[in-house]
Design brief:
Blueprint (H helix, E strand, L loop, with lengths): L6 H11 L3 E3 L6 E3 L3 H13 L7 H14 L9
Antiparallel strand pairs: 1-2
The structure holds zinc ion (ZN).
């Protein structure tokens, strides 16, 4: 059986899809792309493609939690 996607993985996928975050091309660490449109789009996607058994509000909170945990610097680039 395929491993269930965690809520963090789901939120990361939503943020990537919305282009709110992007991996460093050299190291693959996720970085923020400062785009208000990106986070708005991520919220819309989160409502449309909700994590199973999670309310709309909880989905948006999960997306924000992952977004807030990232920075605009790649730890590998320093
Ligand atoms: Zn890097």
């Amino acid at each position: 059986m395929r491993r269930k996607e965690t809520v963090e993985e789901w939120a990361t996928r939503i943020l990537l899809h919305a282009h709110a975050i992007a991996p460093c091309p050299d190291h693959g660490y996720m970085r923020l792309k400062f785009s208000h449109q990106g986070i708005d789009y991520a919220h819309a996607l989160a409502e449309f493609d909700r994590y199973p058994n999670l309310s709309k509000l909880k989905c948006i909170e999960a997306v924000d939690a992952v977004f807030d945990s990232l920075s605009d610097d790649c730890p590998g680039c320093e």
